[in-house]
Amino acid sequence: MLDFHDRLKTYIKGSSYDYKGLSLEIGQGERYISNLLSSKSDPGYSSVVKICSALGITPNQIAGLNDQITLAGGEIDNRIVSAQAERILTSVTREAHRKLSQRGARPLLDDVLTWWHQQGGVLTNFDTLSEHVDLYLAPDEHSRLPEPYKIGHQSLAAESFGIQTAEHLRYLFTTFDDKLCESVRLAHVETTKGDPKLTIEEIDVMLPGHSFPLRFTYKRLLLPVRDAYNNKYVLNYSQALE
Predict the structure, then answer these.
(1) Residue ranges of the HTH cro/C1-type domain (predicted)?
(2) Which CATH superfamily does the domain covering 127-240 fall into?
(3) pTM (two decimals)
(4) pLDDT tens-digit profile of 114-152?
(5) CA torsion 57→63→65→71, rounded to 10°?
(6) Is residue 204 a contact partner of residue 183, using CB atoms and an 8 Å limit?
(7) What are phi and psi of 46, to 5 degrees?
(8) Neighbour-count burial of 179, counting CB atoms closer than 10 A to its CB (0-12 exposed, 13-18 middle, 19+ buried)
(9) What is the CATH number that goes with domain 4-103?
């Protein structure tokens, strides 16, 4: 049985679009469709609707259901399309959660990078990842310390430092070595210039209740992101180095 990505390939072959042309038609970067198909990643809600509209098909068809009604420009009933796309994405999201559960409910670095690329750096379709990442306010010229905004309950910082709130992490930064804080702040400054930053970090921190520093070695992915109101943040996804 064909899955979503195989059906999409078939519909594209039968259309006047190649992968680049369809990507540009729906307002994405020229490799969006190619990356979507090669990685078998999950499309966003709006992308499903735009892809179907460009190809002249319904969300039911791309989902492999029996609805053969085609879409044609101004004849689209947005309420019907929205309801159908919602059903498809519910199924896609459920499958994504199942895959994450199979490998310990922790996303891979590739998962996070693929999500960031597909969403164009916007914090949408974020539920699967939100518990595993930390968000920081993008630094400005007056920033002295990193500014935690939201902590994922299963992020590396939450699990390693025993924290649950941005306020708690903000307090810990006031107790950390000045060089460490400045290193993190500068990494956030560089990230806000637009490119992902993937590094291996080794830090020694003194946590409350401990009489000696604890060493943490981990992979750190920093991504520039923004919300629907164009507020800018730095997303931190870290994994312990094994």
Answers:
(1) 32-62
(2) PAS domain (3.30.450.20)
(3) 0.59
(4) 899 888 999 988 887 899 999 999 998 788 999 999 999
(5) -20
(6) no
(7) -65, -30
(8) exposed
(9) 1.10.260.40
